[in-house]
Structures
1.
Amino acid sequence: MESESGDELPEIENIQIQSRSISPEFQPDLPSRPPTPENLSTLETSTKAPKKKRIRKDNDYWSKHVGERKSTMIKTKPTVFAIGADADHPTDAQARSGPQAAKWEKAWKMERAQLEKYQVFTKVQESQIPEGTKIIDTKWVYIIKRKPDGTIEKYKARKVGRGFMQEAGVSYDLDKTYAQMIRPETFKILLVKALYREWAVRQWDVIAAYLKALLKHNVYITDINKAGETEFWKVDKALYGLKQAGHE
């Protein structure tokens, strides 16, 4: 045998090639057929190492502090009253014919006088209402306001509109249904400053605050007068229960 350069190469006889057996644990898990789009996802899944399940260890701080605090928390339900459920929240019929009818009538007249004083509405005829206008129903809501000791403070009546009957974009703006309120942090800053300056802190309640805001939309409602007859009102100022009353 000669190489390319012409030199003679030694002859090698009886060359034996020994193959080493591969341990099963080192043999790759090869597919029996070449990967195709159909079995590619299966191949990728089979070659991935299985994820270890994480076991959450007990946390002494959680079990001693947070766990005890959560177990001692008392879940309370919000106070919701139903009209007609008790004497403090009578229906219109119960208020007019019940044993406290005279006091409820006085409260009704006071609220009616407030509506007239602030010119909240204008009486109109049904024929004066534009065709296709949705008329909003209303109701009188009666409630007994009590002092912290449980004694009666006053009998209160309110004319409330059923705002769920209003149409967005027609009788109110969808983005103007919230009440503008001051943040609690601002109250705290004012109280701290008043304490530092030794100022006198007072509070007051604005009577019929809702009834002083002008409405920007034409809203028509119904009312039942004392004689039981249906009247039609054009609301000129905000009325309790209307969607935009708190914002205006």
Note: The longest strand covers residues 214-224.
2.
Amino acid sequence: MPLLAEIGWGYNQNAVLALGPLLRNDQPCLNGFSETDFVRQQVAAGSIGVNQFVSYLGGTVLPVRGLMIGLAYERFQENLSVNRTGHNAFDAQINFFPWAHIELVVIGRYQMNGWTAGDGPSNKLLMGQLHYYL
């Protein structure tokens, strides 16, 4: 069972709800997740700092027992004060759990370096994994 860790400030009264999608019954459902972060990266050698932007928007559907399909969009802007330093990525993931302790995963990713595909080279990834959990 994958667990997601989160570090941040604030008071979370509903910490158990983070495991809600994993502890549900076997009905088909759609789970969504989004996150937006503004980051200030400070260089230790001086007083120079860089403002960055990171965002994630994704959804996962569990159509039948043992199958999970996810799609996501990610945005990373390395420096908010410099034009065309962003990266946009589209992710697709299929997880299949045929038996207890076994997981088959197929992951695909397409990343554009720059605001559009013409601003820089694009990166593509297709990966398959077989996991065995104890």
Note: Confidence is low (pLDDT under 50) at residues 1-21.
3.
Amino acid sequence: MNRHTAAQAEPVTTARGASRLPQLRGRPMVTDGGMETGLIFHHGVDLPHFAVFPLLETAVGRALVEDYYHGYAEIARRAGAGLLLESGATYRASPGWGARLGYGPADLARVKPPRSRCCPGCGSATPPPSPT
């Protein structure tokens, strides 16, 4: 496998502040992938239209999403690497996809938490307990 670090790659853009991004300074990074597939095949979760955001409406669903993110946070901690997380839980929480699932604009606003709430404690040494 041909391995390149982010420091060796040519930047595609030089947006203001981009040089401060850790992934552009050669720091090893861990990122997540496959949230929907993992929830379906490892946890037996039904995801109509491959949408995860309806899970955020229940304590059990939120715990599944948080556990997914915490798993990657733990990998990054053990590796001494940075962590980049996608917003997979809410990427389908848009008007078009929401309508297919019976969610109007007010419903979508309710289920789209601030990003910091998708994975509380991911930056800390110990993940917080899951909600009850």
Note: Residues 59-79 form the longest helix (21 residues).
